[in-house]
């Protein structure tokens, strides 16, 4: 766990905290029981701290503000790592750590956690780096990696990849689901921007640079307890919540700002709470069936294969036409 008084003083203005909604170390520490609870572990060391975490977790989970009714199964312990971190991996981790923290010691700690996660996952995406950084605030390395592996193997399978085809597929599945619910919004948005351009901060980055930390944890709770279906419920809620504003604009930059909840389009912090709560409440109310997701994934994957084949065929045709060109000095 990185959280200390010194850490807060050095990093509170770093990029990780740009949307945190946290104004003090005390506020940040108050979030830790909820993050610890994501592991689904029962405290068993007999310590006062463990008892208090367990007590506070149960107390908060009984409150309507934190719907934890489905409960989290305990996240699996780590198996033997299967993948080797290369010098190129280390270079990328270092660059991402520099983008995340300002202090070299904290960057090194993040790099270590990224290396440990890679040794179990075998791939990496920058959005994953922010998730690891967020979890590292509250958890030790082993528990950070346990959660990353759990997310990688189940609700977010294939997202933590340098070439996340699973993410691209699922962003297009989201648009198929939107088409069924609001054809007008789907057609307008599809004519302006591809979904993979705006879904990554939700699907891969788990809203860390979109929502305040307290709502980020709510998102993580829902993903872990409800699985991949919630990811699509949230995506639909985000789009439908902003439906009127999207339909009223042809400005791609403005629409992308809406879908990132950029500060440029948000009201004051207190008024923004109604937006965050509105999206999360709508996500809780939208049901997406796993069978529907499975079928749409098959359909979209087939479309992606056809599109790839068409691109490859077009490239061959262009190469063939280039070969037929005779330059004057060749005559």
UniProtKB/TrEMBL annotation:
Q: Taking every annotated instance into account, which residue ranges of this chain make up the domain Rab-GAP TBC?
A: 44-250
Regions of biased composition (Acidic residues) lie at 320-331
Q: Name one GO molecular function term.
A: GTPase activator activity
Tell me the segments the record calls region Disordered: 312-331
Gene3D superfamilies (alphabetical)? Ypt/Rab-GAP domain of gyp1p, domain 3 (1.10.472.80)
InterPro entries attached to this UniProt entry: Rab-GAP-TBC_dom, Rab-GAP_TBC_sf, Rab_GAP_TBC_domain
User: Per its record, how is this protein called by name?
Assistant: Rab-GAP TBC domain-containing protein
What organism is the protein native to? Babesia bovis
């Amino acid at each position: 766990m990185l959280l200390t008084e010194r850490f807060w003083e050095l990093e509170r203005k770093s990029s990780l905290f740009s949307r945190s909604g946290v104004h003090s170390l005390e506020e940040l520490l108050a979030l830790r029981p909820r993050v610890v609870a994501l592991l689904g572990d029962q405290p068993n060391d007999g310590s006062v701290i463990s008892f208090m975490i367990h007590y506070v977790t149960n107390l908060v989970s009984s409150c309507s503000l934190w719907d934890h009714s489905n409960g989290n199964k305990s996240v699996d312990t780590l198996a033997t790592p299967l993948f080797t971190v290369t010098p190129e991996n280390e270079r990328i981790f270092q660059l991402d750590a520099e983008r995340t923290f300002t202090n070299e010691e904290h960057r090194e700690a993040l790099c270590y956690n990224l290396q440990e996660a890679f040794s179990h996952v075998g791939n990496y995406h920058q959005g994953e780096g922010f998730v690891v950084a967020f979890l590292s605030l509250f958890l030790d390395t082993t528990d950070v990696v346990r959660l990353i592996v759990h997310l990688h193997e189940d609700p977010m399978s294939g997202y933590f990849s340098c070439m996340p085809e699973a993410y691209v597929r699922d962003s297009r599945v989201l648009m198929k689901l939107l088409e069924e619910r609001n054809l007008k919004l789907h057609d307008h948005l599809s004519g302006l921007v591809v979904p993979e351009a705006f879904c990554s901060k939700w699907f891969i980055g788990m809203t860390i640079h979109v929502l305040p930390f307290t709502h980020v944890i709510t998102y993580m709770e829902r993903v872990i307890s409800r699985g991949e279906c919630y990811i699509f419920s949230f995506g639909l809620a985000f789009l439908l919540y902003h439906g009127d504003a999207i339909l009223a604009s042809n400005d791609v930059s403005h629409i992308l700002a809406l879908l990132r909840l950029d500060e440029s389009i948000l009201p004051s912090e207190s008024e923004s709470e109604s937006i965050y709560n509105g999206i999360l409440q709508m996500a809780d109310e939208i049901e997406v069936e796993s069978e529907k997701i499975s079928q749409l994934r098959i359909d979209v994957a087939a479309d992606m294969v056809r599109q790839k084949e068409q691109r490859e065929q077009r490239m061959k045709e262009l190469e063939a036409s280039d070969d037929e060109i005779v330059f004057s000095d060749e005559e």
